[in-house]
Design a protein that fits this description.
single chain, 20% strand, 99 residues, 4-stranded mixed β-sheet
Length: 99
């Protein structure tokens, strides 16, 4: 499994534990480019999470999509192996801001 795959698995596990609805959009060239790796909803708040590992950086298209989520009132996150352990706390803090 790739380092990014490990981050994605940890993200999914945390979201499952939190009871979030989430899915990973299929990227087969037929959809919109730059969509975050994980899309979901928790307590009525939409979120998009881009998973990265190592020196991985977001592309301009990914940044554009994350910005659109943010402007629309959703939670936009970039999660990597350094902060994946704090995902629960990060999401809970973001949710508090919206209540």
């Amino acid at each position: 499994m790739t380092p990014e795959g490990k981050v994605k698995n940890q993200i999914k596990q945390t979201l499952d534990e939190m009871g979030a609805y989430h899915f990973m959009p299929v990227s087969n060239g037929m959809g919109r480019m730059g969509i975050p790796d994980v899309i979901g909803c928790l307590y009525g708040v939409f979120f998009g999470i881009e998973a990265k590992a190592g020196k991985g950086r977001t592309t301009a298209l990914q940044e554009r999509e994350l910005a659109k989520i943010h402007v629309a009132g959703g939670i936009d996150l970039i999660i990597n192996e350094e902060n994946v352990g704090n995902l629960r706390a990060i999401l809970e803090e973001e949710l508090k801001r919206r209540r």
